[in-house]
User: What shape does this take?
Amino acid sequence: MINTCNTCDVLNAKTKVADEERKINLTAKLAEHQHQAEKAYPEKRVDKANAKTDSSVRAFAFDLKQCLPTPYLKTSVSFYKRQLWSFNLTIHDLATNEATCYMWDETIGARGANQIASC
Assistant: This one.
């Protein structure tokens, strides 16, 4: 499964229903957006190298992993019943290669910017 951002999803959805002229514009916007995203990877490699060689530099990557239904059940009847959702935020220290996970469920908080920042 490929991760996409909200901007990619919106532009892809709009492209599917657009007329030809608008489709060209939306496709160009999507290509530029993806180009900007791709430019971030070399920057991340530079930051990681700097963090490994210079102790005054710290570099971290973080990712909110896929939401986890709790308990994890595969039967179709239980899938459609209300399940408790758990969230897993992983923070990776690029210099030391150590990862820290913060987990909480939806009774404690959502998965918005405030909850991520509080971790």
Observations:
- Strands lie at 60-64, 68-70, 84-93, 98-105.
- The radius of gyration is 19 Å.
- The mean pLDDT is 88.
- Residues 1-57 form one domain.
